[in-house]
Structures
1.
Amino acid sequence: MSDVSNQAKPQIYLDHAATTPVDPIVLERMIPYFGSTFGNPSSWHGYGRAALHAVDAARDKIASLIGAKPAEIYFTSCGTESDNWALRGAVRQSNKPVKHIVTTAIEHPAILDTCSDLEKQGVEVTYVGVDNSGIVSVDAIKEAIKSNTAIVSVMTANNEIGSIQPIAEIGDYCRDEGIYFHTDAVQAAESENLNVNDLNVDMLSLSAHKFHGPKGIGILYIRSGVKLGRIITGGHQERGQRAGTTNTPLIVGMAEALAIAVEKREEYVMRISKLRDYFIDRALSEVPYSRLNGGRIKRLPNNANLSFEYIEGESLLMMLDNKGIAVSSGSACASGSLEPSHVILALKVPPEIAHGSVRFSLGRDTKKEEIDYVIDALKASVERLRVISPLFNVEKGTGHYV
Ligand SMILES: *Cc1c(COP(=O)(O)O)cnc(C)c1O
């Protein structure tokens, strides 16, 4: 498979951190709830009861999969809403005159943009940095906590570089200090232990479309006793805490998707981490001036984020897309602007090299032949881009930044 250009264009999806396809079993489980079992779970008649029965079963299943009680599971529209609710709710319930949030510099925009919005309303936010592996230190979090801290929010695993954070240790400290602790676990569902008691969390966000469930449905786990109040007002759904007609089909699908993810976890982690390591090893040894962003341990098994010096990540993304390969440069939200990713910059990678970063996120069904094809395409594309790059001298085989 060395001559990529003479082959029919394949379709290789290496952007599972952005979203995943719905598992066919999940789709099948959802279909009846778009059709015959369409009732509103809040209705008192038989149609409603049938739908409510399915929602209750899904809630029970999800609760048992993460070690929670069913009454601690709240259905939301997405991971972004769950993150908003955790932060905005915790800040609002705090009785301190000036409220303070501790978070990290590498959170998803669902957290960071919410924090900056809250800052405009007078809330103080401390953004704790990370080491060059993209991991936050427990001590740095402890030092950032103040007497007016309303909530600490640290993601379980990063969406761009896959770094896995010391959640259980941070949670242990927050519990002793009596401070609410939230984790955005949206990227972690397929590979990490999500048991809320092992993680010592008070709140945890999930989103179904990141683990082969449907888009538009998420979870906020809220430990009993934690008071957040409502951010979406209206009807009495979700025990009066989150209004809006209950989305039966998507909830049923999400529960099924989470059950499958947990069931396949061990096998998935073993297979995908090996394949990912194979990809990283080949890319680093076969593509000159390439580097891995983030560390090799405490990293999601499907994530490889690489920088290719003297070229732009966006140009490489387009070239790979041309060859039928779907990847991402930085986060979806960072692309579209020319700012390098805040996550890669937080690793102290120089901005010019951060510009050449590309995220490859493998999935449950990624095959070795696909990785081999991607390596060939990558080598050819990087070489081609360097030929036209003003920063690279092909004769000398080296480049320099101006
Ligand atoms: C995708 C993602 C979100 C947002 O979830 P949506 O359901 O798409 O709103 C939040 N946090 C992380 C870490 C994510 O990867």
2.
Amino acid sequence: MTMRCDIAALAMPGVRGLSPYQPGKPLEELEREYGVRNAVKLASNENPLGPSPKAVAAARAALENVLRYPDGGAFQLKRALARHLGVDAAQITVGNGSNDVLEFAARAFTGSDCEVIFSAHAFAVYPIVTQAVGAKAVVTPAREWGHDLDAMRAAINERTRLIFIANPNNPTGTWLRATDLQAFILGVPQHVIVVVDEAYFEYVDQSEYASMLELVGRCPNLIVARTFSKAYGLAGLRVGYAVSTPDVADILNRVRQPFNVNSLALAAATAALDDGEHLRKAIALNREGMRQITLGVERLGLSFIPSVGNFVCIDLTRPAAAIYEKLLRQGVIVRPIANYGMPNHLRVTIGLAPENERFLQALEKVI
Ligand SMILES: *Cc1c(COP(=O)(O)O)cnc(C)c1O
């Protein structure tokens, strides 16, 4: 006889209250469930161009040596990043995706009785890592869908340990002016770590935008997180990194699993850094695709939140779930974002021109 046992009651309170991250629907799943063929996925902000061929070749070559553990110190990748970014290798912490380093920050610097501040409609991983360590999430209201730095500043108290800022933010595509963000970071008390998540940094084309990397040398409490999942097209390999002072990196590295980034990912990321031409191609393709989609959406009489990323949120002015379902039946996967407090919006990733066209035609059909 088996004993009945309430497993959920055994979980830590923060964990009990969590809902798992909802990823974009995989293509194979859609084709299996809906019987559609040649579906397109514009749901996870992946780079439709894919990675640099140099990165793929490096990963392939690394396959030869998978009997060995990867280099836990990520020597080559850190050296390449240090050169690329103009920082010291000791300032870099590598992650299994940048989600990994976001979690390191939460685990290393917060716990129960601590507060973590982030904005409404901000990236879904912030509440997950906050609650998982038993810290209290303090969610500040958004301003025109973007982060309200004044509200975030006002939310800081003596229990605050961490602030997550996505610049640009996903899913809204909103961004913060460099001068505003700099002033905010410099004004944050030193007992609070600020994580600036720059997952889409490469795509931004705004004169008043800047990476906060320059500030790292002056701010002992700043962490800048970056990823190879978006503009570099390596989402499937899982590799990202944090840049901070060596002191912060030392702390982050204490909670990092020794072999968190696999050898294929290390090789591919190192090679990807060396192909600036491919990166520029991806960025140019995104710019054209953004124009194509936003013009198409306007033509359908719909509005959208101006985005500097590789995705855009379309306002359907009514619950978007039904439209999402109908798009699935047309073989087009986008992302419903009701779980981000945005039930009337759908987020669409910028794809290749024919994919964007397919999306626009499907949208016209179903609205
Ligand atoms: C996609 C994304 C990431 C990166 O996730 P990885 O773990 O590096 O794949 C980080 N932050 C935001 C805001 C994102 O949208």
